[in-house]
């Protein structure tokens, strides 16, 4: 019977594949080769630094190439530039390159490479290179190891913008005919890794750069495997098929990950997505910090995170939350860790303490200076936002504030929020993505120049003394901010930034509801030397955990 | 000694409403070299009878009676044993025009299959025999390499006959063999079958609803009605002096090209539902000579003349 | 009235294009399904066409009913040229011309009720304004064809009817518009002999009652003899003999007609029957043989038959035959 | 070999391909926005200029068509937006072998399975075996492909750890020869199993045609010939019932092509399905267009190959 033959043949193939497969793959090719495997879910992987702009691309660039500095919120970690200085106007910057830096092909890395990179990037208007190119005016080679960059406008955040300005070797790229279509499949870089193999939809593989100028890399290979979904990536981590997941986006899976003692979940607290309750501080009693603090205290943020954003809303790419499971050690917000009852009691106590507010009576609306506290909250008419507003409304009822909801479309809302239609709202909620630190993000909403906003604070109605310098607090903030930008000692800088945020939070006409942080996870049983939490803060783990910053410390655990 | 004896054969089909008594107590014998024609309207059980002889009933079963081929009881042997009897001793010619030949094999290979299933013969020997059989039915042996769709209806019917002869069977059952053939082709095929039957001394059971065809081909006739034999006898008697009212009506409904009678009579009414056949004479509701007793009294098949049997309560009055 | 030129067909021809094996481009060759046929059907008469399968008789019927477009030739109905009638004209014409099909098992939609099937033509022509009138008409028609007009019958579906009943339904549906010219394509060939006679009797009764004219296609010469006034014998797309029923059966002129008659098994078994039946079949040809199409099978054939196409010639009071050797 | 039929099918296939190619040309030009937008919209400006020149997007529609045909014949389908600077051809070239491997393996395993089970179920329609198989097939048919894929992945990869969680081969493994083959098969087991849910459809088709075929007269002939049950089942019934199955495989192939989008995405299999999924979510029109063109070509070619099989199996194909 011919058909039977075919059938038997196919069954045999199937069975064989089930048996042969695992047998054939049972052991790695070379046991002395240490390989770090990471699961990623991003789509496109390119190794052309001029074109790299997506998150997946950046992740690859940061392994092959390096920028002058890695900046974040005014802090900066030296990379190819070991030190830098700037003039008083902050319009002219001088970078001193590290001595003896080499390209992976052995050629020396010089200031000429920096000039070439910035000039080419600016002239070609390529998608890669970040925002710095917008500011760069001229690049001058002072000597082999010194380069001077002038910028076109006052830009104290210039260091931040250099993050993704990857310096490329001039001697290679001058010969490239068409940068726009160059796949750059054998890149020569200065980073710890050399790109070795790229299979679209499958993986990107790196070999260690034996000539790495920054030190000895202890891992031989790194493979970024592309997974179809976050679930699979996390499953792969849990089952030990990969060593890390640089970006955890699936909030609901984190508790499962934490069950395993071999898995560590970390948070990069450089928030890049915020969800706020905006308060029109020109109106009473919104102008009272105590009132805002009471409101802030009463809001059940965990509910908002758990329920509103993840039951009704779409899940943003960057997870705007810190799940309770890992929140205890990494984040802080008013009322975190308190019971609902305690939180509400405390909020009520704060209002009761002010005699302008009537005392709290269960089920009744408080009055402020005799007027009932009926507050209108404008929200975007989307399920997630409505749900979130409902939670806030319930919380407010518990402290005697009656909130009514006014639903409007996304477009009009944004126009009102950021286009100056302040008269139309009393309270409002909106989510917003921001670059850099909390301060930068907020500042950007209120003025064209993020670093001028503090000078302009009075014009925003901030404070009441009106002497052109803003409130004392605002002036103090500004001073701290300026200092932070010039501060080189990381410890001092961290303290400063923290102080700024604490001071600022008290005065802010904005109440944070949730914030987006990058969460990463890795296995503890395969490699040691993962950077401690505090080092990762604000560093953009996806860019650096496996890249230039962390890699030298990583050591494989011999199995 | 008859070559085939059928005794009180009963075949029922099982439906949800109950058993359909398609063949209900049929007995007859077939002698060596004899040809019997079985006639009746559609649904009278004649095809079921043929299929019962081949043990090919689907959705039903032979529930009673005996079939003897010589000394062997066909119904008592296992189906595997019976498979050896099939075709080697009893073969079946069915309507080739209605797809009795498998469309995906050459007709020759289908004959070869029949031979090799029973005879220990090499392929080439079987093909030789196939060529011989085709010559016998006046078909060019080259046609053995053709597929059924490449052949005309008459040719296919001849090939069915050749296939039926493959293992020199004692009995051939021809079921509606020439139905759906054109009249000239029908005549040619019929002539061929009659000729072969005489020449090879075959025993033939010819089933058809066309009485005139049976009249030409058969020595003996069986008229069936509603699962029972109503009349059985030599062809000349049946055609010349039919005794049963049903036989008379059946013959009367034929169109005679040479008669002046413009339109023949029809038989009013329709055959009974075999789920619940009438108690007495099954033909009684349509019968014009029936009496009241016929409604309850079931007529027996009795020999009215030597070799001429009939089942009618009113026979004495009619004759 | 009797001799009115009721339905006339003039040089009607139908070629079906067929491409040769392996031929992808270029002109196809044509199968001569119906080749230059002419005849006249008279009012109130039954015109029979007899022939074996493939002789073109069904194509002829389909052309008359405009189910097939003639390659050339004309058709006249009551003196009016209907050959090139468009859909709208045909719709009107169908009130006068209807067809009864061969297969009562296949021609009725199995999921529709008898009432719907019979009423279909009147619905298409929007005859009745309300359903009650329509129902009365349907019941009347069912009674006319000898079926019960009970509500139970109206709601039955074809599967619940016997073959004979189904063919009656087919006839009722054909007659409901009051058609007077009926094209019947082997209306009883699928039925048992006992029922066959019934249906034929019904058709003949209706013919008398309603003064119908039949164009009757059959392969059974006996049937044609019994009911037709005039019979045409077709072979390979051509009419080979046309005559009154009695004349053609009793004194066939064409050897093919003779063969057809000889091939019918006699009612009384006759040991001599079949002596004259020659071997050979209707050949499947795309290009007909030159001369008389029957000559390859004909015992009388000579050189003339191979080269010259015989014309239909009136040999005896309207008894036409197309043979060189009558 | 029936050349005429073959040439006709070949011509038909070329026509379908031509339609696919022309549609591929027309759709971006009929979309809201301009063809420039569809071809180059999300590419860097410098590349846009090159693409516009390469596809003549600023020229007349006829010049564009000529360029499009030339480029297509050269294998230039444009630049992928989301994978820039990789060309569409490069992306598809990487992905196509995997998809073909997956789809063909699934088909080659599923069709015989559906065949065998269909034969078994159809042979004794209504029996317990039949009911069991029907329930299985229907459940498979009714279960969404992606769900089955997810369950397989969760159970066999995540829980039991028998199979890998992703990919077509161990990434960057350096395996060669047999080891590589084993690795690839190991990775393919689950995706192929998921795609094998089509077994249900094949089984149902096979079973139903089997039931119809068993009513054919040639089955009775075969049984009457004394052929054994298996011979009747496989040689006569199944052989004929196979023909509609072959046709349906062609039709269903288009379905599994669609199914591969789910399956490949769930198993992170680097084939065209994943490519299409990614192209859709990143609005990568040129890539999407290229993938669809390739899928139409693959489907047409597979259908043509099946036609060849059909040609071998069915002698009736004449025209």
Report on the architecture of this protein.
Chain A has three domains: 64-178, Dipeptide-binding Protein, Domain 1 (Dipeptide-binding Protein, domain 1); 193-269 and 518-556, Periplasmic binding protein-like II (D-Maltodextrin-Binding Protein, domain 2, 3-Layer(aba) Sandwich), CATH 3.40.190; 271-516, Dipeptide-binding Protein, Domain 3 (Dipeptide-binding Protein, domain 3, Roll). Chain A is 35% helix and 22% strand. Chain A has helices at residues 2-25, 55-64, 111-124, 132-135, 158-161, 170-173, 230-238, 254-259, 289-298, 301-312, 324-330, 340-352, 383-398, 410-419, 438-446, 472-486, 490-507, 533-536, 541-544, and strands at residues 35-40, 69-72, 75-78, 81-86, 92-97, 136-143, 146-151, 193-199, 203-208, 221-226, 244-248, 263-279, 367-368, 371-372, 374-380, 402-408, 427-433, 510-523, 527-528, 555-556. In chain C, 31% of the residues lie in helices and 23% in strands. Chain C has helices spanning 57-64, 87-93, 114-124, 131-144, 151-154, 163-175, 193-210, 221-227, 245-250, 255-263, 303-307, and strands at residues 5-18, 29-42, 46-50, 72-77, 80-81, 97-100, 181-185, 213-218, 230-235, 238-244, 313-316, 319-321. Chain C has an eight-stranded mixed beta sheet, with helices on both faces. The model of chain C has no long low-confidence stretch (mean pLDDT 84). Chain D is mostly helical and 319 residues long. Chain D has one domain: MetI-like fold, CATH 1.10.3720. Chain D contains 13 helices and no strands. Classes of the chains: A alpha+beta (559), B alpha/beta (319), C alpha/beta (326), D mainly alpha (319). Chains in contact: A-D, B-C, B-D, C-D. The B-C interface holds B 41-42, 138, 152-155, 182-188, 190-191, 194, 209-213, 215-216, 235-236, 239-240, 249-251, 253-258, 261-268, 270 and C 52-53, 162-164, 192-198, 200-201, 204, 219-223, 225-227, 249-250, 259-270, 273-274, 277, 279, 281-282, 284.
């Amino acid at each position: 019977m011919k058909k039977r033959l075919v059938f038997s043949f196919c069954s045999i193939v199937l069975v064989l594949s089930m048996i042969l497969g695992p047998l054939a793959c049972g052991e790695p090719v070379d046991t002395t080769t240490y390989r770090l495997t990471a699961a990623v879910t991003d789509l496109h992987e390119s190794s052309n630094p001029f074109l790299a702009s997506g998150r997946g691309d950046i992740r690859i660039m940061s392994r092959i190439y390096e920028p002058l500095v890695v900046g974040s919120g005014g802090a900066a970690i030296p990379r190819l530039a070991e030190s830098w200085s700037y003039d008083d106007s902050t319009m002219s910057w001088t970078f001193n390159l590290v001595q003896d830096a080499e390209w992976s092909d052995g050629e020396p890395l010089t200031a000429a490479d920096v000039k070439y990179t910035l000039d080419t990037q600016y002239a070609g208007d390529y998608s890669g290179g970040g925002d710095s190119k917008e500011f760069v005016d001229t690049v001058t080679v002072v000597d082999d190891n010194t380069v001077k960059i002038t910028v076109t406008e006052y830009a104290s955040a210039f260091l931040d913008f250099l993050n993704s300005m990857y310096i490329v070797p001039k001697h290679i790229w001058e010969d490239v005919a068409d940068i726009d279509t160059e796949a750059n499949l054998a890149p020569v870089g200065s980073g710890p890794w050399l790109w070795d193999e790229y299979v679209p939809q499958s993986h990107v593989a790196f070999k260690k750069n034996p000539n790495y100028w920054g030190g000895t890399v202890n891992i031989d290979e790194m493979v970024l495997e592309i997974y179809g979904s976050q679930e699979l990536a996390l499953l792969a981590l849990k089952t030990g098929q990969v060593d890390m997941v640089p970006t955890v986006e699936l909030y609901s899976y984190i508790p499962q990950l934490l069950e395993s003692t071999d898995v560590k979940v970390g948070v990069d607290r450089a928030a890049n997505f915020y969800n706020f309750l905006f308060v029109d501080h020109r109106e009473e009693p919104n102008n009272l910090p105590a009132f805002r603090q009471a409101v802030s205290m009463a809001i059940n943020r965990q509910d908002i995170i758990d329920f509103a954003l993840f039951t009704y809303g779409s899940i943003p790419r960057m997870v705007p939350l810190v799940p309770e499971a890992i929140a205890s050690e990494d984040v802080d917000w008013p009322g975190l860790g308190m019971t609902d009852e305690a939180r509400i009691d405390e909020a009520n106590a704060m209002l009761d303490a002010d005699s302008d507010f009537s005392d709290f009576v269960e089920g009744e609306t408080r009055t402020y200076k005799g007027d009932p506290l009926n507050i209108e909250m404008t929200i975007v008419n989307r399920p997630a936002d409505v749900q979130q507003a409902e939670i806030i409304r319930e919380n407010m009822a518990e402290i005697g504030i009656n909130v009514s909801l006014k639903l409007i479309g996304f477009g009009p809302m944004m126009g009102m929020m950021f286009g100056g239609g302040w008269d139309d709202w009393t309270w409002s909620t909106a989510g917003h993505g921001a670059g850099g630190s909390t301060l930068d993000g907020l500042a950007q909403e209120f003025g064209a120049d993020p670093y001028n906003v503090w000078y302009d604070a009075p014009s925003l109605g901030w404070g009441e003394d009106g002497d052109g310098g803003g409130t004392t607090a605002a002036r103090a903030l500004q001073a701290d901010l300026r200092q932070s930008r010039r501060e080189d000692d990381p410890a001092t800088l961290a303290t400063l930034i923290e102080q700024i945020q604490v001071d600022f939070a008290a005065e802010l006409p904005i109440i944070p509801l949730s914030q987006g942080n990058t969460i990463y996870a890795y296995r503890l049983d395969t490699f040691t030397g993962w950077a401690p939490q505090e080092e990762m803060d604000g560093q953009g783990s996806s860019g650096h955990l496996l890249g230039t910053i962390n890699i030298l410390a990583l050591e494989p655990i011999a199995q | 000694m008859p070559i085939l004896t059928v005794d009180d054969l009963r075949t029922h089909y099982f439906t949800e409403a109950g058993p359909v008594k398609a063949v209900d107590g049929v007995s007859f014998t077939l002698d060596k070299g004899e040809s019997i024609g079985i006639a009746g309207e559609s649904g009278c059980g004649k095809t079921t009878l043929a299929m019962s002889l081949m043990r090919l009933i689907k959705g039903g079963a032979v529930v009673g009676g005996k079939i003897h081929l010589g000394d062997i009881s066909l119904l008592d042997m296992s189906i595997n044993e019976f498979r050896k009897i099939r075709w080697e001793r009893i073969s079946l010619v069915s309507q080739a025009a209605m797809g009795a030949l498998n469309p995906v094999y050459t007709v020759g290979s289908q004959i070869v299959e029949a031979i090799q299933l029973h005879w220990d013969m090499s392929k080439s020997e079987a093909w030789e025999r196939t060529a011989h059989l085709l010559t016998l039915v006046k078909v060019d042996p080259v046609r053995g390499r053709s597929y059924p769709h490449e052949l005309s209806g008459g040719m296919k019917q001849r090939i069915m006959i050749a296939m039926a002869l493959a293992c020199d069977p004692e009995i051939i059952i021809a079921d509606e063999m020439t139905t759906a053939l054109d009249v000239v082709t029908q005549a040619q095929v019929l002539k061929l079958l009659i000729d072969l039957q005489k020449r090879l001394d075959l025993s033939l059971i010819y089933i058809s609803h066309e009485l005139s065809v049976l009249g030409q081909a058969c020595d003996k006739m069986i008229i069936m009605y509603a699962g029972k034999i109503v009349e059985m006898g030599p062809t000349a008697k049946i055609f010349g002096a039919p005794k049963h009212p049903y036989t008379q009506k059946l013959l009367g409904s034929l169109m005679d090209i040479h008669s002046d009678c413009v339109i023949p009579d029809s038989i009013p009414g329709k055959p009974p539902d075999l789920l619940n056949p009438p108690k007495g004479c099954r033909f009684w509701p349509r019968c014009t000579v029936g009496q009241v007793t016929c409604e309850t009294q079931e007529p027996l098949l009795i020999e009215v003349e030597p070799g001429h049997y009939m089942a009618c309560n009113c026979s004495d009055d009619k004759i | 009235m009797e001799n009115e030129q009721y339905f006339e067909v003039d040089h009607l021809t139908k070629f079906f294009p067929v491409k040769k094996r392996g031929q992808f481009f270029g002109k196809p060759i044509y199968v001569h399904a119906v080749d230059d046929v002419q005849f006249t059907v008279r009012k109130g008469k039954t015109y029979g066409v007899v022939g074996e399968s493939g002789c073109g008789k069904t194509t002829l019927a389909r052309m008359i009913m405009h189910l097939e477009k003639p390659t050339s030739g004309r058709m006249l109905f009551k003196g009016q040229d209907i050959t090139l009638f468009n859909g709208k004209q045909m719709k009107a014409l169908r009130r006068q011309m209807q067809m009864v099909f061969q297969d009562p098992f296949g021609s009725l939609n199995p999921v529709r009720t008898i009432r719907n099937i019979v009423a279909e033509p009147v619905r298409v022509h929007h005859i009745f304004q309300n359903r009650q009138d329509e129902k009365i008409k349907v019941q009347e028609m069912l009674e006319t064809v000898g079926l019960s007009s009970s509500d139970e019958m109206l709601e039955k579906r074809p599967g619940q009817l016997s073959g004979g009943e189904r063919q009656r339904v087919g006839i009722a549906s054909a007659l409901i518009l009051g058609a007077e010219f009926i094209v019947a394509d082997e209306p009883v060939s699928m039925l048992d002999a006992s029922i066959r006679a019934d249906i034929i009797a019904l058709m003949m009764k209706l013919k008398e009652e309603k003064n119908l004219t039949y164009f009757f296609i059959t392969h059974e010469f006996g049937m044609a003899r019994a009911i037709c006034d005039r019979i045409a014998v077709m072979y390979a797309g051509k009419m080979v003999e046309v005559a009154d029923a009695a004349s053609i059966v009793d004194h066939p002129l064409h050897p093919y007609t003779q063969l057809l008659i000889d091939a019918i098994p006699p009612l009384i078994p006759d040991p001599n029957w079949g002596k004259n039946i020659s071997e050979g079949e209707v050949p499947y040809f795309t290009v007909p043989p030159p001369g008389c199409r029957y000559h390859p099978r004909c015992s009388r054939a000579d050189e003339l038959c191979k080269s010259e196409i015989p014309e239909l010639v009136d040999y005896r009071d309207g008894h036409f035959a197309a043979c060189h050797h009558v | 070999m029936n050349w005429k039929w073959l040439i006709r099918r070949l011509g038909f296939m070329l026509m379908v391909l031509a339609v696919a190619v022309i549609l591929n040309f027309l759709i971006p030009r009929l979309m809201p926005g301009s063809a420039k937008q569809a071809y180059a919209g999300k590419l860097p400006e410098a590349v846009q200029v090159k693409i516009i020149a390469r596809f003549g997007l600023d020229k007349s529609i006829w010049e564009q068509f000529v360029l499009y045909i030339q480029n297509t014949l050269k294998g230039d389908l444009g630049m992928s937006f989301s994978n820039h600077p990789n060309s569409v051809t490069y992306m598809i070239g990487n992905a196509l072998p995997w998809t073909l491997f997956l789809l063909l393996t699934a088909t080659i395993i599923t069709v015989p399975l559906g065949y065998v089970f269909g034969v078994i179920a159809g042979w004794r329609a209504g029996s317990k075996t039949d009911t069991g198989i029907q329930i299985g097939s229907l459940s498979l048919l009714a279960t969404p492909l992606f769900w089955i894929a997810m369950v397989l992945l969760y159970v066999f990869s995540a829980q039991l750890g028998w199979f890998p969680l992703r990919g077509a081969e161990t990434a960057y493994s350096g395996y060669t020869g047999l080891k590589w083959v084993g690795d690839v098969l190991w990775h393919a087991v689950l995706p192929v199993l998921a795609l094998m849910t089509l077994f249900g459809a094949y089984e149902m088709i096979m079973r139903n045609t089997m039931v119809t075929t068993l009513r054919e007269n040639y089955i009775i002939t075969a049984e009457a010939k004394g052929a054994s049950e298996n011979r009747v089942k496989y040689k006569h019934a199944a052989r004929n019932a196979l023909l509609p199955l072959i046709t349906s495989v062609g039709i269903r192939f288009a379905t599994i092509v669609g199914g591969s989008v789910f399956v490949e995405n769930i198993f992170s299999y680097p084939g065209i399905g994943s490519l299409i999924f990614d192209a859709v979510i990143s609005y990568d029109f040129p890539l999407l267009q290229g993938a669809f063109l390739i899928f139409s070509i693959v489907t047409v070619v597979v259908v043509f190959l099946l036609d060849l099989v059909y040609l071998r199996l069915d002698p009736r194909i004449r025209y």
